[in-house]
Design goal:
174 residues, mainly alpha, 3-stranded antiparallel β-sheet, globular
Amino acid sequence: MPLLLIPLLVLALFALWLLLLPVSLWARYRNGRARRRAKSWVVRGNAWLVAVSVPIFLLSSWITARWVTDALRDALIGLLTGVLLGIVSLWLTRFERDGQTLWYTPNRWLTLTLTTLVAMRILAGLWVGWRHLASHTPSALAVWLDAGAWAGIGGLFLGYGVAYLWGLRARLPR
């Protein structure tokens, strides 16, 4: 009898996740546009950790390219687009100095765009999964959203993080 409750528990957890997803996206947006103090050790540590992630990401995309033909190309395009987006975001960020402390407020429209992209990625993944369960023939959107496209979106966020954090690191007081 308890084994019969496992599918109900999985379904209940999935429903709870779907209900809390908009709340978590709203919290991500609010936190993303909030005014923050740039702590030098946090910014420097994050900049180096994200920089270490880039070769690992490119290596995994290169390995994935054995099965998905455009994975490495899409990852590189996403990475370069993300770097450009990070540079634009640095130009739009408001910086304030309070003695030795650096405060920054990211641009709310760019934060909203990135949060919307996260939401669209989640919805597209759910939609492709649902379409795959409903019919075993891939649709045109499912083919477009293969692993190469997902690598491109991952590269966009990673490139954005690299450019933004290294630009923020450059603005820190010595």
